[in-house]
């Protein structure tokens, strides 16, 4: 597939969301770095991120979610984690918490660990992609 570089607008977000839905990674800015985004529930899509980055598969990825409610569907939050989330989300804080028993995130994304790294980003492009990609 050819590389596309697009300005941020509704059509670009829709195109990126369509690629994610096809299991393909897309590059997207966050408040800290440009990152590769894919459907974290798809082992194949996550494997494409590892391959593109040359990242070892024992190094877990960060799963971005739109809000604390979505995060709590994936990870177990205690009082301390909720306090940190309330204070710093959305923003560049990643919380590592135990996976929920029925967490739908592919095990490859967490490198097979029983924990998951979660972040609610503040960057408008990543937030728009999350909103457009909701399943």
Q: What would CATH call the architecture?
A: Alpha-Beta Complex
Provide the spatial order of strands within the biggest beta sheet: 3-5-4
Mean pLDDT: 95
Question: CATH fold name, please?
Answer: DHBP synthase
Low-confidence stretches: none
The major β-sheet equals:
3 strands, mixed
- Structural class comes to alpha+beta
Order of helices and strands: HEEHEHHEEH
CATH class: Alpha Beta
Strand content: 5-15%
End-to-end gap? 24 Å
CATH superfamily: DHBP synthase
Number of domains: 1
- What is the CA-atom radius of gyration, in angstroms? 14 Å
Q: What is the number of beta strands?
A: 5
Number of continuous helical runs: 5
Oligomer: single chain
- The residue fraction in helices comes out at 25-40%
The outline comes out as globular
Q: What's this entry about, in short?
A:
The chain has 135 residues and is an alpha+beta fold. It has helices at 10-21, 43-53, 68-72, 79-88, 124-133, and strands at 26-29, 34-37, 62-64, 95-98, 115-119.
Describe this structure in words.
- With 135 residues, the chain is of the alpha+beta class.
- It has a single domain, classed as DHBP synthase (Alpha-Beta Complex).
- The chain is built from five helices and five strands, in the order αββαβααββα.
- It has helices at residues 10-21, 43-53, 68-72, 79-88, 124-133, and strands at residues 26-29, 34-37, 62-64, 95-98, 115-119.
- It starts with 9 loop residues before the first helix and ends with a helix.
């Amino acid at each position: 597939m050819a590389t596309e570089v697009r300005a941020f607008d509704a059509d670009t977000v829709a195109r990126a969301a369509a690629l994610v839905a096809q299991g393909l990674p897309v590059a997207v800015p966050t408040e800290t770095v440009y990152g590769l985004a894919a459907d974290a529930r798809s082992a194949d899509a996550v494997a494409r991120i590892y391959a593109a980055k040359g990242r070892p598969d024992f190094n877990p990825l960060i799963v971005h979610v739109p809000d604390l409610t979505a995060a709590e569907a994936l990870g177990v939050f205690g009082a301390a984690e909720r306090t940190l989330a309330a204070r710093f989300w959305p923003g560049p804080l990643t919380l590592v918490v135990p996976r929920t028993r029925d967490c739908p995130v592919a095990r490859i994304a967490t490198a097979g660990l029983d924990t998951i790294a979660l972040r609610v980003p503040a960057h408008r492009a990543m937030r728009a992609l999350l909103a457009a990609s909701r399943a």
